[in-house]
Write a structure and sequence with these properties.
By secondary structure, this protein is an alpha/beta fold. The protein has 2 domains: 249 residues, Alpha-Beta Barrel (TIM Barrel); 93 residues, no CATH class. 43% of the residues lie in helices and 18% in strands. The strands form 4 sheets. An 8-stranded parallel beta sheet has the order 4-14-13-12-11-10-6-5. Strands 1-2-3 form a 3-stranded antiparallel beta sheet.
């Protein structure tokens, strides 16, 4: 197997590396903005390049429904379709098997979906999901898997895990080109023994990297960190580790500390469109009336396009009047915050100073309390 991931520096468990793809290099740790439908909402590829994004994520299930895999293939693939020339990771649709539970049925050969658009029936199998992603031209593909809720009992989680493992093996056999990487997905819910079982089964197969799935789906942060801590210790040191669906600033810092290299999440862009903006001390709600006459930027030391050109009062006005520009400017700010955060994390690892960076960041960045976070997550899952 060609070496495609190099770990450059290690500071305790935190790693700085380089992931080599057919579309260029990606420096890790990295956060991947989510463009579910071939678009990071309110932004275009020029914005993403200006923000320093080196890789984005898109979704096979949603692109299959609209505009259709063959339509995108006819344009020459997803990169040409959306005018993005850097790497793309595509999710398989496995998470939609969880978030769209009322529209799906888990069967032996895959997931049967009832389209949330027109009610038509579609079956996603390990083989056709890989075929879809190869047609899209994905640089990093994900196999279809079964994601479970944190409240599911051990037997249900075990059954989901066994299906995920069988589908992973079939996905590997379906892969037809070395141009696309394929990551395995470790499942097992909140049960350490099942996480080990899943990881060890997948390690017997030759995947290009390993993902930790089935987290950030309603469990506590304590439980999430515990499972991440446990699972990364089982995964190989020479391959990338991807934590799926995690993207709050505090989680990025804490999970890099536990050995994670790659992240994605809709959170920074979704909360931006709802007026929640990241600052060094936590989050601010731009719709708050106290910002109406504020002529300062959201963050005075921020170098993003939004903060260098517009006042907080102007953003407050845009959100109050529901002007579309507000969503774009807020999204630019939040993604800039995360891109800068990941760059700073990487630098601190290389300089062997990550421990101090982590302590300083966690000491000043105050996230939402647990009950607020769970309500926001439930709202997101119900609308996904």
């Amino acid at each position: 197997m060609i070496e495609h991931f190099i770990v450059e520096s290690i500071d305790d468990n935190a790693r700085a590396g380089i992931l080599k793809t057919s579309r260029g290099y990606v420096e890790t740790p990295v956060f991947m903005p989510v463009g579910t439908l071939a678009s990071v909402k309110s932004l275009d590829p020029f914005d993403l390049n200006e923000l320093g994004a080196s890789i984005i994520l898109s979704n096979t299930y949603h692109l299959y429904l609209r505009p259709g895999i063959d339509v995108i293939d006819g344009y020459g693939g997803l990169h040409k379709f959306m005018s993005w020339n850097k790497p793309i990771l595509t999710d398989s649709g496995g998470f939609q098997g969880f978030s769209l539970e009322k529209f799906r049925k888990i069967i032996k050969d895959g997931i049967q979906f009832k389209s949330h658009i027109d009610g038509s029936i579609h079956v996603f199998t390990p083989e056709n999901v890989i075929n879809h992603q190869e047609k899209l031209g994905s640089n990093i593909m994900m196999p279809i898997d079964v994601c479970v809720a944190p409240t599911d009992d051990e037997q249900d989680v075990l059954e989901a895990l066994e299906l995920t493992t069988k589908w992973a093996a079939r996905s590997l056999k379906a892969k037809t080109t070395s141009e696309n990487m394929l990551f395995g997905i470790v499942q097992g819910g909140l049960f350490e023994s099942l996480r080990r079982r899943s990881a060890e089964q997948l390690l017997e197969m030759e995947f290009d990297g390993y993902s930790i799935g089935g987290l950030s789906v309603g469990e506590s942060k304590i439980d999430m960190y515990k499972i991440v801590d446990y699972t990364t210790q089982i995964l190989p040191d020479n391959l990338p580790r991807y934590l799926m669906g995690v993207g709050s600033p505090e989680d990025l810092v804490e999970c890099v500390a536990r050995g994670i290299d790659m992240f994605d999440c809709v959170l920074p862009t979704r909360i931006a469109r709802n007026g929640a903006l990241f600052v060094d001390s936590g989050r601010v709600n731009i719709t708050n009336s106290k910002y109406r006459k504020c002529d300062l930027p959201i963050e005075q030391n921020c170098k993003c396009h939004t903060c260098t050109n517009f006042s907080t009062g102007y953003l407050n006005h845009l959100f109050k009047t529901k002007e579309l520009l507000g969503y774009r400017l807020a999204t630019i700010h939040n993604l800039h915050f995360l891109m800068k955060l990941m760059n700073n994390i990487r630098t601190s690892i290389i300089e062997n100073d990550f421990k101090n960076f982590r302590e300083d960041f966690i000491g000043r960045f105050i996230p939402p309390d647990e009950s607020t976070r769970r309500k926001q997550k439930e709202l997101w899952l119900s609308s996904h």
